[in-house]
Amino acid sequence: MAMKSLSFLAVLSLLAITLPLSIASDPSPLQDFCVGVNTPADGVFVNGKFCKDPKLATADDFSFSGLHNARPVNNAVRSNVTAVNVNNLPGLNTLGISLVRIDYGIGGQNPPHTHPRATEILVVGEGTLLVGFVTSNPDNRLISKTLNAGDVFVFPEGLIHFQANIGHSPAVAFAALSSQNPGVITIANTVFGSNPAINPNILARAFQLDPRIVVDLQGKFKK
Ligand SMILES: *[C@@H]1O[C@H](CO)[C@@H](O)[C@H](O)[C@H]1NC(C)=O
């Protein structure tokens, strides 16, 4: 009897250890694929989007073209992120994965941001990038490295991260993300560019800034 309850306890504690591990990831897609469509006509509803009838799915539902093209970087941060996710590659629906191409002009950067739903693995195609992420509170440790063509770096889910082109030529990177729709929260735009604006006195206290500087930043990031 004592042995029995002991082994029961052992099984329970094993479950307690392995259960959280097994659910700490994107769910299983449950079927081969579920090409996302926006209307229920000829569709079945699974997992947030309507699925196209699998018999009607074509190769085009699973492909995207043009990622070899360099994108213009005509903005203040001199970078351009081209996302390939469930919104423009509907076959990704339920599969828990997506892709981006990031172009960086000279001196350009992909500014500090986080993906609320995805880990990101990045490979540099051309150029030299200084990349990094910061761990959560209380440590807020910066983990950072200089990458060259062919180097790979991973940004853990939810953590604030960035890439900056520190080379003398344009740079390009590709990254895979562990969600069909990773989401992006760009820190400066979210905090200083919210619509409507957060009260400048609140941000002045939060960032230990003169309220006039906050108002100036809010002008820059206003939508
Ligand atoms: C990013 O590239 C797209 C596609 O070429 C272009 O329409 C857009 O204007 C570019 N964005 C910036 C900030 O240059």
From TrEMBL:
Family note: Belongs to the germin family.
Primary site of residence: secreted
Source organism, top-level taxon: Eukaryota
Signal sequence, start to end: 1-24
Keyword tags: Apoplast, Disulfide bond, Glycoprotein, Manganese, Metal-binding, Secreted, Signal
Species: Camelina sativa (False flax)
Descriptive protein name: Germin-like protein
Subcellular location: Secreted, Extracellular space, Apoplast
Ranges where the Cupin type-1 domain occurs: 65-215
Protein role: May play a role in plant defense. Probably has no oxalate oxidase activity even if the active site is conserved.
SUPFAM superfamilies for the chain: RmlC-like cupins
